[in-house]
Specification:
The protein contains two helices and no strands. With about 60 residues, it is mainly α. The chain is rod-shaped.
């Protein structure tokens, strides 16, 4: 795992917590922030996954 993957997963988890807190408190803004964090985390993890695939391909050469 590389740094982008770890940070992406962490941001996704943070987003899930924010969204749950928003659900419990009825705070729509917090819910939306949580969803946005989850999307951002997914993107960052995807970048990390791509980097990892490129690294593996290079290592095979």
């Amino acid at each position: 795992m590389n740094k982008d993957q770890v940070k992406g997963v962490a941001k996704q988890a943070k987003g899930r917590l924010k969204e749950a807190a928003g659900d419990l408190s009825g705070n729509r803004q917090l819910q939306q922030e949580g969803r946005a964090d989850q999307v951002g985390g997914s993107v960052r993890k995807g970048v990390g996954d791509a980097k990892e695939q490129v690294k593996r391909a290079i290592d095979k050469l």
